[in-house]
Amino acid sequence: MSKILIIRFSALGDVAMIIPVIYSFAGRYPEHTITILSEAGLKPMFDTAPENIQFFGADLKDKHDGISGLWKLYKELKQENFDYIADFHSVIRSYYLRLLFKFDGTPAAHIDKGRNEKANLTRKNNKTFVQLKSSFIRYQEVLQKLGFDFDLDFKTILKNSDVDLSPILSTIGEKGNVKWIGIAPFAKHKGKIYPLELQEKVIEHFANDKRVKVIVFGGGKEEKEIINGWIKKYPTVQSMVGRLNLSQEMLLMSQLDVMYSMDSANMHLASLVNTTVVSLWRATHPYAGFMGWNQSEDNAVQIDLSCRPCSIYGNKECYRKDYACLYQIKPESIILKIERLVY
């Protein structure tokens, strides 16, 4: 039996993308113990993990901050006597940790992020416009470098025993005969967010449709204020901001008939509970390898522009200055995609 440490500190969507890989790995090698090293606050994502998967929460803002903090983290991890180190993050923190383990003779491998390929995909002129490896494949390859061969056969994080819907039903009510449409209208960067005035047209359309219930996901004060503004106009819309914890939100997502999401963490969370996602892509593109698990590009909403994609993460300013990739997407095209899936 071997003990494998897998490192992926953040962010929420990226950590969500390791789950199909490690669950597939855990199923193929039940005799091995797998420890996920990530930010402590992400532990609920692994509450339903197979028995041979453990979670180690790092406190990167205090106890494990800086070089001295990482040294403490290494000393704590060293007590587990890991046989292999799989670095799924490949940032300075994870590089430092895997270097310390390598000095001790522990075999280690790290992710190839394909930075040059992604730079060629997003450059301003003469793009190399091809589908790149998904992050799932890149994570799988790290473990293959360490000698583990396995297929990606993940279905859902939910177990058969996870049938207690009372926490969400007490918040949102019984489903009845209506369709539940989840809407996750926010993302970290502007290049991923559909303009709110256009977003509202999508919400308005379904808020006025008695065949559906609209459930909006978000977090933080600013997003809550925006959602509350929509609810004042469209009282049938329900907000989940601050009402459910992460595990409960994912359980709710499993009950949706469709999730409409930006290219953001909620796309990946819905994917982990086998819910179909209509995803919106603007400055970014599915070719970069960040499509949700088992999601179809047929359900992606995007427009063809010679400047797309201009960014991997949506964090660059639009060099055209007009954000055409945002404003040229019509709300009607999003509505049509959703309706084709729920009716």
Protein described:
The chain has 343 residues and is of the alpha/beta class. It folds into two domains: 3-145, 3-Layer(aba) Sandwich (Rossmann fold), CATH 3.40.50.2000; 166-342, Glycogen Phosphorylase B (Rossmann fold, 3-Layer(aba) Sandwich), CATH 3.40.50. It contains twelve helices and eleven strands. It has helices spanning 12-28, 66-78, 92-103, 115-122, 135-145, 166-172, 196-207, 221-233, 246-254, 265-272, 324-327, 331-342; strands at 3-7, 33-39, 53-58, 84-87, 108-110, 179-184, 212-216, 238-239, 258-262, 277-280, 300-301. The chain has a six-stranded parallel β-sheet, with helices on both faces. Strands 3-2-1-4-5 form a five-stranded parallel β-sheet, with helices on both faces. Helix 8 (221-233) links the parallel strand 7 (212-216) and strand 8 (238-239). Helix 1 packs across helix 5 (135-145) and helix 7 packs parallel to helix 12 (331-342). The longest helix has 17 residues, at 12-28. The chain is globular, with a radius of gyration of 21 Å. The termini are far apart.
